[in-house]
Write a structure and sequence with these properties.
The complex is a heterodimer of chains A (388) and B (238). Chain A is mainly alpha-helical and 388 residues long. Chain A folds into 2 domains: 256 residues, no CATH class; 105 residues, D-Maltodextrin-Binding Protein, domain 2 (3-Layer(aba) Sandwich), CATH 3.40.190. Chain A is 67% helix and 5% strand. Chain A has 17 helices and 4 strands. In chain A, helix 3 links the parallel strand 1 and strand 2. Chain A starts with a helix and ends with a helix. In chain A, 39% of the residues are buried. Chain B is built from 8 helices and 9 strands. In chain B, helix 2 crosses helix 3 and helix 2 runs parallel beside helix 4. Chain B folds into 2 domains: 161 residues, Rossmann fold (3-Layer(aba) Sandwich); 67 residues, no CATH class. Chain B is α/β, with parallel strands linked by helices. In chain B, 45% of the residues are buried. In chain B, strand 1 and strand 2 form a beta hairpin. In chain B, the strands form 2 sheets. Chain B has a 6-stranded mixed beta sheet, with helices on both faces. Chain B has a 3-stranded antiparallel beta sheet with strand order 2-1-4, with helices on one face. The chains are: A mainly alpha (388), B alpha/beta (238). At the A-B interface, helix 1 and helix 11 of A face helix 2 and helix 4 of B.
Chain lengths: 388, 238
C-alpha cells in the first residue's frame, strides 16, 4: 500500500506532464533567461574583442604613408574611398571614412597641425562605433608623433603630459564574470517559480473549479498527505525548471567567447553544485507558496492572478539586488529569495563560501516550507474550501 | 447502516437542519427526497464527514473489515488527463487498497459498468453518462458497505439511468446500504425500499413507500411530496 501523499504526487505529476501546452510554455519561459544572457554576453564579447579587422575607406591615403601604417597596425584595412564618401556614409553604405587633405605632406613636414576629416553618422550605432575606433587610433598616432617631435627637439614629452591616468583593475577574472553575469541569478531565481506554476494552479484552484476536490477529500486521505502530494509534484517541476535553466546556461556559457571579456568562469561542476544548493531549497519553498496561494483561489483564472503576482517577488528582489550598490549583508541570508540571490551571486563570482553561508538560506527556506505546508493542510481540512 | 440522530446545522442565522433523524438500513435502498433547500445535500455532507453538525450524531456501521462509506457527491469532476482506468485506480489507491487487489477491482468495475471500450480513454473525452459511471466507480472501488449518492441520475439518458439502477439494486442485493437523493419521483417509487422526505430542514415523513402512501392517504409519492411541501413546493421538482 502506498502512502496517500505519494499517490497524490504521482497522479498530479502524471497529469501535469500530460499538459503539453503548459509544459511547452513553461520550458520556453524557463529557457528564455539563459538565452537572453547568452545574447547579451555575446554582444559584449564581440564589442570588447571587437576588434576584428575593419575596412576603412581613405581618401588621399597615399599622402600619409606613416599614418596608414599605424592604422594597419591597429587591424584597420585601408581601402580606396569612393568619390563621395559623405553621401555613402549618409546613405548607410559606409560606416566611416577618412579624408586626408591634399596639403598633408606639406603641413606634416612643416610640423603644423594637419586637419583630417572623419566622416560618420553618429545616429547609427555601427557608424558611431567605427568612428570611435578610428578616432582612438588617430589619437594614438598623434600622441606618438608628438612625443617623437618633442624628443627630437630635446624636450621631454612628459612636459606636455602633466597627468597620466592609469587604471588599476583589482577585480579578479571571476569577479568580472559575475558582473557580466549579474542578471543570471535573477533568471535562476525566476526559473524556480515558473515551471511548477501551471501545475500548482491546476491541482488546487483548478481542482476546485472542476469540482473534483470534493470526491478527493471524500476518500478520507489526510489533508496533510493531499497537500504534501500536490506540493511535491509542484516542487519537482520547479526543481526541473532550475536544472533546465542551469543546463541551458552552462551550455551557452561554455560556448561563449568569455575570454574576450577578460573573464573566466569557475569550474562548471562547482558552479552547478553551488547553484543547486542555493536554488533547490528555494524551489521547495516556491512550490509551497504557489500551492498555498492557488488553494485560496476559487478558479483557475484567480489562481493565475495570484501566482503571477507571486512571480514578481523573485523578479523584483533579483533585479534590485543585481543593480544595487550595497554590500552583501549577512542578514539577507535570512530572507528567502534575497538570501538565495546573494548566494547565487557569490557562487557565480567564485567566492569562497562558508558552510554557514551555504546552510543558512537553505535552512530558512525549509522551515518556511514546512510552515506553509501546515497552512495548506489547514486550508484543505476546512470545509470552507468546498462550501465557503 | 447509516443512522442520523438529531442532526442540527446552522449556516449563520439560517437553520439548515433541525433535529434530522432517520435510518438507512443494510440491504435496502433509501431515498432522501425534498425540494431545493430542504437540507438533503447538507445531510449528505455531514454523513460523509465533510461538514460538521452543530449537534446530533451519525452512526455508520459496517461488517468486519469492510470499508464503511463510499460517496458520490452531486457534482463530481473527473481528472481530464487521466484515463478511466487510472482515474478509478487513483481513488482506490487513496482508499489504501493494495496494488494486486486494486487492479482486479478496477477491472471488475470497468466490466460491471460497461466501460470496457473507454477504459484507456482520457476522461475528458467521455459522454455525460460515461462520466457518471466513472465517478460511481470511484466511489465504489473500495467496495464500501454503505453508499451515498447525491442525485446520481441527474443529466443521464435512459440507458445510463437503467444501468445505474441495475447496479444499485445489485449492491442492495449484496447487502449494501444505499442512500441516495433524487428529484425524480417515479425513480424513487421504482427503486427505493424506504423514503425519507425532508422539508425546511426537517424530516417530514419516513418509511416504506407503500406505508407512507397509506398513512397519508395519497396515491403517489408525488402527491405526498406536494402535500408535505405545499402547492408551490413542486416548483423545485425537476
Amino acid at each position: 500500500m502506498r502512502h496517500a501523499a505519494f499517490v497524490v504526487f504521482a497522479k498530479e505529476l502524471r497529469e501535469g506532464l500530460r499538459d503539453r501546452r503548459s509544459i511547452g510554455a513553461a520550458i520556453a519561459a524557463t529557457l528564455a533567461g539563459p538565452v537572453i544572457v547568452g545574447v547579451i554576453l555575446t554582444l559584449l564579447a564581440s564589442d570588447r574583442a571587437g576588434r576584428g579587422p575593419m575596412d576603412l575607406p581613405v581618401s588621399g591615403a597615399e599622402l600619409a604613408p606613416g599614418l596608414m601604417q599605424s592604422l594597419r597596425n591597429e587591424r584597420i584595412v585601408i581601402v580606396s574611398a569612393p568619390a563621395d564618401s559623405e553621401s555613402d556614409v549618409r546613405a548607410g553604405r559606409l560606416d566611416v571614412a577618412l579624408v586626408i587633405p591634399d596639403d598633408y605632406p606639406i603641413r606634416f613636414g612643416a610640423v603644423r597641425t594637419v586637419p583630417v576629416r572623419v566622416v560618420s553618422d553618429p545616429t547609427r550605432t555601427a557608424s558611431r562605433d567605427a568612428a570611435r575606433r578610428l578616432r582612438d587610433a588617430l589619437a594614438r598616432y598623434g600622441r606618438q608623433i608628438a612625443s617623437v617631435r618633442l624628443i627630437a627637439r630635446g624636450v621631454n614629452p612628459e612636459v606636455v603630459l602633466p597627468l597620466r591616468v592609469e587604471d588599476v583593475d583589482v577585480s579578479t577574472e571571476r569577479a568580472r564574470a559575475a558582473v557580466a553575469l549579474s542578471v543570471l541569478p535573477v533568471f535562476l531565481l525566476v526559473s524556480v517559480f515558473v515551471m511548477g506554476m501551471s501545475l500548482a494552479i491546476d491541482t488546487t484552484a483548478g481542482e476546485r473549479e472542476r469540482r473534483s476536490l470534493e470526491p478527493l477529500l471524500l476518500t478520507g486521505a489526510p489533508a496533510m498527505s493531499i497537500g504534501v502530494g500536490k506540493w511535491a509534484a509542484t516542487a519537482l517541476m520547479n526543481v526541473g525548471g532550475l536544472v533546465l535553466t542551469l543546463a541551458c546556461a552552462s551550455l551557452i556559457l561554455t560556448r561563449l567567447p568569455l575570454e574576450d571579456l577578460g573573464v573566466r568562469l569557475d569550474s562548471l561542476g562547482r558552479l552547478s553544485a553551488g547553484v543547486l544548493m542555493a536554488g533547490v531549497p528555494l524551489a521547495l519553498l516556491a512550490a509551497a507558496l504557489q500551492v498555498a496561494a492557488a488553494t485560496h483561489a476559487r478558479t483557475f483564472k484567480e489562481g493565475q492572478t495570484y501566482l503571477s503576482m507571486l512571480l514578481f517577488v523573485p523578479m523584483v528582489i533579483g533585479m534590485l539586488s543585481a543593480f544595487s550598490h550595497g554590500q552583501p549583508a549577512p542578514w539577507r541570508l535570512l530572507v528567502p529569495v534575497l538570501g538565495q540571490h546573494q548566494l547565487l551571486a557569490a557562487v557565480l563570482r567564485g567566492d569562497e563560501l562558508s558552510d554557514l553561508t551555504l546552510a543558512l538560506p537553505a535552512l530558512v527556506a525549509l522551515v518556511a516550507t514546512v510552515l506553509v505546508l501546515r497552512r495548506i493542510a489547514a486550508l484543505l481540512a476546512n470545509d470552507g474550501i468546498l462550501y465557503g | 447502516m447509516i443512522a442520523a440522530r438529531e442532526l442540527t446545522k446552522h449556516y449563520g442565522a439560517h437553520l439548515a437542519l433541525d433535529a434530522v433523524t432517520f435510518t438507512a438500513r443494510d440491504g435496502s435502498i433509501t431515498g432522501l427526497l425534498g425540494p431545493n433547500g430542504a437540507g438533503k445535500t447538507t445531510t449528505f455532507r455531514i454523513v460523509s464527514g465533510l461538514l460538521r453538525a452543530d449537534a446530533g450524531r451519525i452512526e455508520v456501521s459496517t461488517h468486519a473489515g469492510a470499508p464503511a462509506l463510499g460517496v458520490l457527491p452531486h457534482v463530481h469532476g473527473l481528472y481530464g488527463r487521466l484515463t478511466v482506468r487510472e482515474h478509478i485506480r487513483y481513488f482506490g489507491a487513496l482508499r489504501g487498497m493494495g496494488e494486486g487487489g486494486l487492479a482486479a477491482r478496477v477491472t471488475q468495475l470497468i466490466e460491471q459498468l460497461g466501460l470496457n471500450e473507454v477504459a484507456g480513454s482520457f476522461t475528458r473525452t467521455l459522454s455525460q453518462g460515461q462520466r457518471v459511471k466513472v465517478a460511481v466507480a470511484g466511489a465504489l472501488v473500495h467496495a464500501p458497505q454503505n453508499l451515498i449518492l447525491d442525485e446520481p441520475t441527474s443529466g443521464l439518458d435512459v440507458m445510463s439511468t437503467r444501468a445505474l439502477h441495475a447496479l444499485l439494486r445489485s449492491l442492495r442485493d449484496q447487502g449494501a446500504c444505499v442512500l441516495f437523493s433524487s428529484h425524480v419521483m417515479h425513480e424513487v417509487s421504482a427503486l427505493c425500499d424506504a423514503v425519507v422526505m425532508m422539508t425546511g430542514g426537517r424530516v417530514a415523513a419516513a418509511g416504506a413507500p407503500a406505508d407512507l402512501l397509506e398513512r397519508h392517504g395519497v396515491s403517489s409519492l408525488e402527491d405526498l411530496f406536494v402535500a408535505l411541501n405545499g402547492s408551490h413546493a413542486g416548483q423545485g421538482v425537476s
